[in-house]
């Protein structure tokens, strides 16, 4: 029978590993979950963006905004998002757009920004750990906060705040 630690809650893996080592059981690297690393380049940015927008497209609150209201062309949008996040995280200056005007007309509120940020942080935490991962979450929080405040001002509601990290 093949046993894999991947079937168990990650927090308990170290306990199981210690027990198996004490019992003389040798575990191959295939039995352990791959440890997380930091965001280090374009491939990681692509992983982050692809995984995040998969969540967005499956989300009952955000998907209608992107797909039904904005009619996002995902084939065009994804490379733009790769450039956007690469520019933010690695200062590549490959993104030359102006994101605010496109977002200013969306029918969104604090709940949308909160969900967007929550999904983004969750995606980062599922794939990465380290200083660049923290930077990505902080940048997303800053973007969400800024856009939410701008929208509230445009709508005459005054600025609001969402929870940062």
From TrEMBL:
GO terms for molecular function: heme binding; metal ion binding; oxygen binding. It comes from the Bacteria. The keyword Metal-binding applies. InterPro entries: Globin-like_sf, Globin/Proto, Hemoglobin_trunc. Keywords: Heme, Iron, Metal-binding, Transport. Pfam families: Bac_globin. This is Globin.
